[in-house]
Amino acid sequence: MKMRVKDLVEKVGFRHIAGKTALEKELTGLYCCDLLSWVMSHAKQGDAWITVQTHVNVVAIASLLDLGCIIIPEDAEIDNATVDKAVDEDIAILATHLSSFEIFKRLYEQGLR
What we know:
It is built from five helices and seven strands, in the order E-H-E-E-E-H-E-H-E-H-E-H. By secondary structure, it is of the alpha/beta class. Strand 6 (69-72), helix 4 and strand 7 (93-95) form a beta-alpha-beta unit. It is globular and about 30 Å long. This is AraC family transcriptional regulator.
């Protein structure tokens, strides 16, 4: 199933925080991890990345790996510097009240692997 970042906003109900044109990116996978060095060595281009990390380094990693988007669970507070950097780099950041597990489960059920 073909899924774009905007589908996560429109169909799943995640809040769009940053990265307006990045909403058109196609998602090719799903990755959940909070250890940044691990993400750098294991996430793949096009992945939707679920993490509670909200500092500016997540944007750098998402940009470096050309990830599809960053999803912040449990309404974790996102640093203003992170949002500003995501806007500058056109990296989509989405947020939700759902837990990482619930996000992963819902997206997996919709065909994102």
